[in-house]
Amino acid sequence: MSDLRLGEPAVAGRVTMLKRLDRRVALVTGGGSGAGAAIARRCADLGASVVVADIDYALAGEVAAGIRAVGGAALAHRCDVAVEEQVVTLIERAMHEFGSLDLVVNNAGPWLDDDPVEHWTRIVGTNLLGTLHVTRASIDALRRRGGAIVNVAAGCGLGFGDGDRPAYSAAKAGIMRFTAALRGLQQDQRIRVNCIVPDRIEIPEEFALSVVELALREDCAGRVVLYRDGAVREVVQYGDPGYRRTEPW
């Protein structure tokens, strides 16, 4: 594994070191709380207009209102990403309100305790199929001037952790393989697709910083990277889209 060195830990004023997103439009699913809210605010700090999508409209509305309160542009939209029709409506509204789409962060992904079949349906439907629905619906908008998609997986999909949530682990592993299958988008349509895999997220603002940095790094297109949240924010390359190891066993 090689260190991508996407930056030092977030500090006051760190946002000025990133490429500006003025006149760009970002869509963040699961943007109503936690890491999703932090990503939405980070994009807005950089000048992007932000679509905050969440199944909980009240939470999405709070985040969007907070962005507007400090002079940014944002709208909230209720969307269950597991339902394709709702995703299509989400993308249509983003295009109607802002006229373009440049960055998509597939962050929506709940987990549920226990392991009944209905939990598998909900977890896989939201995490994996939701990522598929949003990606497919966004492609036409993103190809207009090129753009980026960042899919958020989790370390349990690589076998990290205690393994007590098999549905969630399976869904997150699927997101990584789905990302790997999208190489053609990068080659043919100028759409970069990446996947970031956090072991844990203790400081959402620092994770958000790494997500946005990854989206802006053209040399990282197609990469799956690990995010390690410790004393120092660390993002390391996991492998090429086929996960071929680059160092000796």
Any overview of this molecule?
By secondary structure, the chain is an alpha/beta fold. It has one domain (14-239): Rossmann fold. It is 41% helix and 18% strand. The protein contains 7 helices and 8 strands; from the N terminus they run E-H-E-H-E-H-E-H-E-H-H-E-H-E-E. Strands 3-2-1-4-5-6-7-8 form an 8-stranded mixed sheet, sandwiched between helices. Helix 4 links the parallel strand 4 and strand 5 (147-152). Helix 4 runs parallel beside helix 5 (166-180). 45% of the residues are buried. The model is unreliable at 1-16 and 241-249 (pLDDT under 50).
Rg of Cα set: 17 Å
Number of domains: 1
Beta strand count: 8
The second-level CATH architecture is 3-Layer(aba) Sandwich
Which class best fits the helix and strand makeup? alpha/beta
Overall residue-averaged pLDDT value: 84
- What is the top-level CATH class? Alpha Beta
Overall 3D shape: globular
* Percent range of helical residues: 40-55%
Seen as an oligomer or otherwise, the chain set is: single chain
Query: What is the beta-strand fraction?
Result: 15-25%
Order of helices and strands: EHEHEHEHEHHEHEE
Q: Tell me the major beta sheet.
A: 8 strands, mixed
The third-level CATH topology is Rossmann fold
Count of separate DSSP helical elements: 7
Question: What is the H level of CATH, i.e. the homologous superfamily?
Answer: NAD(P)-binding Rossmann-like Domain
N- to C-terminal distance:
11 Å
Q: Spatial order of the strands in the main sheet?
A: 3-2-1-4-5-6-7-8
